Amino acid sequence: MAMNRSCIAGLAFAVASGLAGCNKAASDGAASPAIGAASGAGAEAARPASGAASGAGGPPVSVSTVRAQQRDVDVTLDVTGTVTALNSVDVRPQVSSIISKVHIREGQFVKAGQLLFTLDSRNEEGAVAKARSQLVKDQLALADSLRQLERSRDLLAQKFISQGAVDTNQTLVDTQQAVVVGDTSAIKTAEIALSYTRITAPSSGRAGAIGVYAGSTVQPGVTSLVTITQLDPIAVAFNLPQRNLADALRTLRSGGGKVTAVLPEGRGTATGKLQFVDNAVDANSGTVKVKAAFDNASEALWPGAFVGVQLAVQTLKDAVVVPQAAVIQGPRGAIVYTVGPENKAVLKRVDVLYANGPDAVASGVAAGERVVLDGRQNVRPGATLMERAPGGGRPGRPGSGASGASGVSGARAASGAGPAP
Fold it and tell me: Residue 277 is inside which H or E element, if any?
C-alpha cells in the first residue's frame, strides 16, 4: 500500500513538471513574435528617415536664393589711416609788440591774405618816416653835387680850373648817388618791419584756438597766435606692408587710382586719390608711409581722426560675384549650391578669387544662376528646393512665386507627420 502511494506521488510530480514546461514554452513562443514585429516596425520606420536625409528622396528644403552678378570688382587693400591736413600753419609774430586788435574769431574760416591781427605799429611808422626824410635830404645833396659837377666841367672847358677839380666833383656825385641808394634800401627795411605789425593768413583754412587778446604782449618765435588748418582738400596718411609697395607705386604712376576712406560709426565714405609714397621702407615696422588726398567740402574728414582705408590696386573686369556667406568650405575645397532643373540642388565647386565684405568673386558659377544662401546647411545634391517667399512668408518653389502650401503638405506626407492640424 505504501508502494502504491509512492508511485502515485511520482506520477503527480511528473505531470506537474510537464505542464510547467509547456506553459513556459508557450510564453516564450508568444514573446518572440512580438519582439520581432517591433524590430521590423522600427527598421521600416528608420528607412524613410534615412532616405529623406540622403537628398532626392527627402522632403523639399526651404531655402533663400540670390542671383550671381557679373560686374567689375576693385581689388582693395584694407588698412587703418589717420586724417591729416595738407597744410597747417602755426602763426607767430616776427616782432616784439603789443596786440592792438584781433580781427577774427575762433573756428572762423579765413582766406589767404585776410587780416588776422594788428600790432602796435607806432615805432615802425616812425622809422619809415625817418628813412623817407633822410632819402629826401640825400637826394637834395645829390642834386647839388650834380650842379657843382656841371659848373666844373664848364670851367674846365674855359681852362679856368684843372681836370683834378672836375674829378673831385665827380667823386662827390658818385658818393651821393650811393647814399641815395642806401636810403632807398633803408626805407624798404623799415616798411618790412612795419608790415610785420599786420599779420595776415598765409593760406586758406579754419582758424583754431586764439591765445591772445587786444593788449597782449607778443614775442617773435615764442608766442603762438593761432593755427590755420586747411580742411579742403585734406589727406589721409596710412602705412602699407612692404609686400604691397609695388602695387602702391603702380597705382601712383597710373594717376592715383581710387582710395576710399570709410568713416567710423557708419557715417559714410569718401573717395580720393593716392598722392604720395615715401622714398624708404621703415626698417622697424617693415611698412612704407602712404598718403591720399580727398575733397572735403562737407568737412566729413577731420584732422586727427582714424578712418578705414581701402586702396584699389587692381580691377577684375566682368567678374562673377556671389555672397560670401553662400560659399561652403569643405574638406575638398569651396562649393556652392545652385538651383538646377526641376528645382533640384546642384553642387558646384568654385574657386574664390577675391573676397571683401559680403561679396566674393568666384569662378565655377555663371552669371544669373540662383545660388542658395539661407538654408544651405540642410541642402544635399539632388534635393528638392523650396524658396522662401520675400518678407518671411510661407515658402514657395524657386522661381514659381507660389505660396508653397502644396510643398509644405508634401513635406509632411513624406515625413509621415500626417495632415496639418
Answer: strand 269-277
The span from the CA of 14 to the CA of 26, in Å, is 19
pLDDT of 257 reads 85
Name all contacts of 152-156 with Cβ < 8 Å and 24+ positions apart. Answer: none
Q: Which helix (H) or strand (E) holds 336?
A: strand 333-339
Q: Using an 8 Å Cβ cutoff, are 71 and 255 in contact?
A: no
Q: H or E segment at 56?
A: none
Strand 385-387 relative to strand 61-63, pairing: parallel
Q: Which tens digits make up the pLDDT trace of 327-362?
A: 998 888 999 999 999 899 999 999 999 888 899 999
pTM equals 0.58
CATH architecture of the region 61-71+317-415: Beta Barrel (2.40)
- CA dihedral of 72, 78, 80, 84, whole degrees rounded to 10: -40
Which pLDDT does position 171 carry in this prediction?
95
CATH of domain 77-86+228-314: 2.40.30.170
- CA atoms of 188 and 249, how far apart (whole Å): 48
CA angle 19, 21, 24 (to 5 degrees): 110
Please name the helix (run of DSSP H) or strand (run of DSSP E) that holds residue 83, with its range, or none.
strand 69-84
Confidence of residue 389 (pLDDT cuts 50, 70, 90): low
Element (H, E) at 291: strand 287-294
Element spanning 401, H or E? none
Give the tens place of pLDDT for each residue, 196-242: 999 999 999 999 999 899 999 999 988 999 999 999 999 999 999 99
- Give the whole-angstrom CA distance, residue 275 versus residue 259: 10
> Distance between CA 275 and CA 239 in Å, rounded?
13
Tell me what pLDDT residue 55 has. 53
Q: How many of the other CB atoms lie within 10 Å of CB of 245?
A: 16
